[in-house]
Amino acid sequence: MLLRRRANSGRKVQPSFVLRPCTRIVLYSPTEYQLLKIPVNSYRLLLLCMGLSFHPMSSYLKSVRQDSQMAETVNIAQMAEKLADKIFNEFFWDRIGPTNINWKCESPDVHKVATHPTDIVFFYDEPYSKVRRYIQCDLKSYSKSSFSKGKISDALVSLAKQVACAEISSEWQGKYLVKGTTSEISGLLFVYNHDQEYHKEFGSLIGDLDVTELNLPPKSRLFLLGPDDINWLDRVVHDIKLMRGDEDDERRIPSRDCCAYYYPDLSRKTNVQADRARAATLEMLSSPWIVMQYFVEDSDVRKGVVVFYRRVPTVDGFKYLIDYLRHFQMFEVKSFNIDIRVNFDLGDAKIVFEKAIIEYLDEIAGKNSDTDFAKRLRKIRISAVPQLTTSFSQEQIGMDYGR
User: Locate the GAPS4 PD-(D/E)XK nuclease domain: which residues (predicted)?
Assistant: First the structure.
């Protein structure tokens, strides 16, 4: 409870310091000390004898401001964590271990720090090797004015040190690695623009980065997701959830248990963890398209694929995608559904895709517009990923924090 008092003169006076007991705050004015006829130093001694303390009002207000700023900083940081958790959960990443901790640096003379931070750690199984990849994340939540080359460069260098140290840190590995699997550690710098006002080319902030400063272990990698990347992935996640609730049986995709991200057998690489490697890897999430496959309920029969196509639609780009789908025999089954979800204007994309089909058929001997293959091509559904911008309320995050 905050108690404000007034001098006997009836005139409002500005308090000068605060008496702070354990459970309440009492403010006295200079006039009141004159009425009490107690010297300030004597009053300090009296408070000390009573087990209380004397705090100047200016110090108290400064403390309140600092506490408020700290709470605001925590809430802003929580925005990036909430969004990362939402996005990567839908891509089948798993969280592990504690969040927002510091751990001892194993190379302080080299890294010039005593500890390293960990915001959050995810993991997933690689499709083309029997490796479990752990992602050491540095989550940033910046306003428009906070973006700079120096900040991004420093964050990447710091993240590289974290990854290098995690490779040899028994403390980090004890908190995050699961025994019995072959593990590799990579780093992800996740830079979220919480005020939605940064519209410049994010890649320009790392154009001058000297990669020799990173000094990563041989099998480790660093990834960077900027505001546009994060917005795209957030929209894909939102679109997947909409498709699961679609009223059209042909367009509706099944539950998460019947979905996986698609990794075909390649000429020099075989999907060696087809049953376990369901997650979208960082390479896929950073690529021009994301391919998700889904199956008939309680069956291994594949029912269809959804391609989330990020590039600007072009005839050559769509011809390459058609060739990819054909190479992996996605036109062989008549009941197989193919959906392409584009990132840009739907009307133009449909026109461009129709031209791509015509040119592709013209380039293949015997594949005219009357063949089964041509008919299958024209059954491909193309639509737009909805526009979406995720924003957070600092007040709500403050209420949720720590629950």
Answer: 75-210
Domain spans of the chain, in order of start: 2-52, 71-225, 238-384
Non-local CB neighbours of 348 within 8 Å, separated by 6+ positions:
313
Give CA–CA dist 386/343, Å, rounded.
8
pLDDT at 62: 54
Locate 76 and state its tokens: 């802003």
Q: Determine the residue type at 256.
A: R
Direct distance between the N- and C-terminal alpha carbons of the chain, in angstroms, rounded to an integer: 25
Exposed e or buried b per residue across 23-53, where buried means at least 16 C-beta atoms within 10 angstroms of its C-beta: eeeebbbeebbeeeeeeeeebeeebeeeeee
- Angle made by CA atoms 250, 354, 289, in degrees to the nearest 5: 65
CB 316 within 8 A of CB 298: no
* DSSP reduced 3-state for 374: helix
pLDDT mean by block of 10 residues, the chain; 403 residues: 41 46 42 51 61 55 49 68 96 97 95 96 95 96 90 93 96 96 95 88 82 80 94 96 84 90 81 82 96 84 91 95 93 88 84 95 76 90 87 53 49
Confirm if 304 and 335 have CB atoms less than 8 A apart.
no
| pTM of the predicted protein model | 0.78
